[in-house]
Amino acid sequence: MRLFTAVLPPPAALAELGAQVDRLTALPGAGRLRWTRPEGRHLTLAFLGEVDEDLLPELTERLGRAARRHPAHGLRLSGGGRFGDRVLWTGVEGDRTALTRLAASVAAGARRAGVPVEERPYKPHLTLARAGRTARVDLRPYAAALAGFTGRDWRAGELTLVRSRLPGSGVPGEQPRYETLRAWPLGG
């Protein structure tokens, strides 16, 4: 199964972000981007990739331990940026240190459970849109339009293990479906 761990912003924060995204979809070229659906918006902590079901019991035990060791913390969605002209995102403000520590703990726990996780610096963000492989869209105007966005404060209080089911129909623009497999409260 294809898995990742995440923090899910609350509905009010996502609705606020959604209003901002609605404005972005009116910009030139927006129709050539694959916009994430509101129910699929999350802050990825660690991408686990394809995980053998036999590893799931040990993985969930270690993720539960990681969640208990880290307190709930305050965050807010804010600003925007891009990874080249492939991915448009909104950033995260608040207790980024706590979020980064949680991400490191989750990745370490997954590795101890036998799930290989790439070691790289954690960059907290929430993906809003992706350019297709052949679509050329200059994402700079979109990132600039997000520069003044500051969302409401909220508490990150839960670690979530999510299964990602990739689209299989071949329909252009179809998006993965996400299913929460397990969630743990932060701080125990």
Question: What is the approximate shape?
Answer: globular
Distance between the termini: 27 Å
Percent helix, as a range, is 25-40%
In which order are the strands of the major sheet placed?
2-6-5-4-7
Biggest sheet overview? 5 strands, antiparallel
* Helical/strand content category: alpha+beta
Rg computed from alpha carbons, rounded to a whole number of angstroms:
17 Å
| Topology as a string of helices (H) and strands (E) | EHEEHEEHEHEEE
* Share in β-strands: 25-35%
pLDDT < 50 stretches:
none
Number of strands: 9
Counting DSSP H or I runs of 4 or more residues, the number of helices is 4
The mean pLDDT is: 93
Q: How would you sum up this structure in a few lines?
A:
It contains 4 helices and 9 strands. It is an alpha+beta fold. The relative contact order is 0.26.
